[in-house]
């Protein structure tokens, strides 16, 4: 375990029906959580249900949000410059619904929806501006790892975030920005990174933060590992000195397994 309070995220991705979400929430509520922060990210349509029915200490995250001002109340703030982003959900709306967290820069957003480093950086700064806590995902492809580019890729992803946060007034790292290191080759593949690979990247991310942001931020920033984490492999990873939590995809859809993963830190 690292420096900060352990934090586990559950990314439900584009999964679930009204009925399955209800069951999963019941399973989560029935689990006993130790001293840990837990953030679950249902699809937008189920955010309200999750907010209403998940008990503390569970908190809720959106899986994405838009980067430009979006209309919150069209009857009071009609402005033709805002809101013309069909299909998007704005940070303002998440703030309005008191959704405390948002996941940004997931590799599926970067790769399937062509979100660039700069775009993700802008989103992070915009979400922070609206007071949202952010889990920002970084990570390399297998090809990038094999050609020795892992840290170049990750540092470029981090730099785009750091630049935008610096440039945007009233926006900051605080302890509300969590970094999720998710090697793309380990996501949904059952191929978990080795403890050595995880510790190596996490320590380098922390050093980058110390060198490029501040010592304070490097200490306060929690770094999660994500990529095929399950109830069987989480304990070994949780012991690593620079790991502050997990971001879990597949296994977060099974209530019992997810609760086990959340409790690994203790
Ligand atoms: C993810 O998508 O963030 C993830 C880590 O997925 P999985 O746990 O299924 O590999």
Automatic annotation (TrEMBL):
Transmembrane segments: none annotated. GO terms for biological process: gluconeogenesis; glyceraldehyde-3-phosphate biosynthetic process; glycerol catabolic process; glycolytic process. The keyword Isomerase applies. Keywords: Isomerase. Pathway: Carbohydrate biosynthesis. One of its GO terms (cellular component) is cytosol. The keyword Isomerase applies. One of its GO terms (molecular function) is triose-phosphate isomerase activity. It comes from the Eukaryota. Homodimer. This is Triosephosphate isomerase. It comes from Ostreococcus lucimarinus (strain CCE9901).
């Amino acid at each position: 375990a690292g420096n900060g309070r352990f934090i586990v995220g559950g990314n439900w991705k584009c999964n679930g029906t009204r009925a399955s979400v209800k069951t999963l929430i019941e399973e989560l509520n029935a689990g006993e959580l130790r001293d840990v922060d837990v953030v679950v990210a249902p699809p937008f349509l189920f955010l309200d249900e999750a907010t209403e029915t998940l008990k503390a200490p569970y908190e809720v995250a959106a899986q994405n949000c838009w980067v430009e001002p979006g209309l919150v109340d069209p009857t009071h703030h009609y402005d033709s410059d805002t809101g013309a982003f069909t299909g998007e959900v704005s940070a303002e709306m998440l703030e309005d619904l008191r959704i405390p967290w948002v996941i940004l820069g997931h590799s599926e957003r970067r790769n399937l929806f062509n979100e660039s480093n700069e775009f993700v950086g802008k989103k992070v700064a915009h979400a922070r501006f609206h007071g949202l806590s952010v889990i920002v995902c970084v990570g390399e492809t297998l090809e990038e790892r094999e050609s020795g580019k892992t840290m170049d890729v990750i540092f470029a992803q981090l730099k785009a975030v750091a630049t935008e946060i610096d440039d945007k007034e009233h926006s900051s790292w605080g302890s509300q920005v969590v970094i999720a290191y998710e090697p793309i080759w380990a996501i949904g593949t059952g191929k978990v990174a080795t403890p050595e690979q995880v510790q190596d990247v996490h320590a380098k991310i922390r050093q980058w933060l110390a060198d490029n942001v501040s010592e304070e931020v490097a200490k306060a920033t929690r770094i999660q590992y994500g990529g095929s984490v399950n109830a069987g492999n989480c304990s070994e990873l949780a012991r690593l000195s620079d790991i502050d939590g997990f971001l879990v995809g597949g296994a977060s859809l099974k209530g019992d397994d997810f609760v086990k993963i959340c409790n690994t830190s203790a």
